[in-house]
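#onboarding

Welcome to the new folks! Below is a worked example of what a typical request in this channel looks like: someone posts a single protein sequence, and someone else replies with the predicted structure as tokens. Don't worry about understanding the tokens yet, we'll cover that in week two.

Example request:
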Amino acid sequence: MQRKRFVKSLQTTLFAVVCLMYLMPIFIVLMNSFKSNSSINTSTFAFPNLDSFVGGSNYINGMNVGEYPFYKSVMYSFIITITSASLILICTSMAAWYISRVNSLFARIVYYLCVFSMVVPFQMVMFTLAKTANTLHLDTPFTIPVIYLGFGAGLAVFMFVGFVKGIPLEIEEAAAIDGCGPLRTFFLVVFPMLKPVLISVGVLEIMWIWNDYLLPYLVLDRTKYKTIPIHIQYLQGSYGHVDLGAVMALIIISILPIIIFYLTCQKYIVKGVVEGAVKG
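Example response:
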């Protein structure tokens, strides 16, 4: 009994230390967002004091510095994230329903291609992707969700297929007897039953798309469109001067919505992943 308590205490201590290690960078950024530039350069890890504390001026400067308005970057990030996540959820859930219910070679090939896409590194296709996106005019915030659909389909289809296989086929047969076609059966019967895995996949995809830097950087025309990560990357004042305090403030602003969103929905992530992985 004592040994079990010791092991449990040791595990708790270890995980607490790991948790603090993950939280430390966020805390350092938050702390420096209230300090002057000179204090950030000379005493990065020191707490703000009377000499270094500048209040909320870094947040105000961060939203106003630079030639590109910050509110536009926020708007484009929201448009890309919401549109891409919605497209992924609707298209991949329909594809997973088809794969689960149609026993054909084509359905199996589509499923294995989606699963295979999860192991292909993005770096292998990024240059070809950038050229193709430019040729097909997918280099705007309103068309880049098509690219995100391709990259997000693998994990989403894998989770949806596992969940759909656990839904009794008799429910869909009863809907067909009542006169429902395939689309009505899916959206009125199957889709509402996918709520746990829909939320889980939605949380994972939104976190990935919101924080993504490389894909928008490669695809979007940066003279016209900038997401929040790209805006922070190019946050410069006159003569190339970088306001570190403003950078730290905008980093906090950018991660705050996704942290709140994750904390609100985190209980659905494990539930959706487990149910989507073991059913069927």
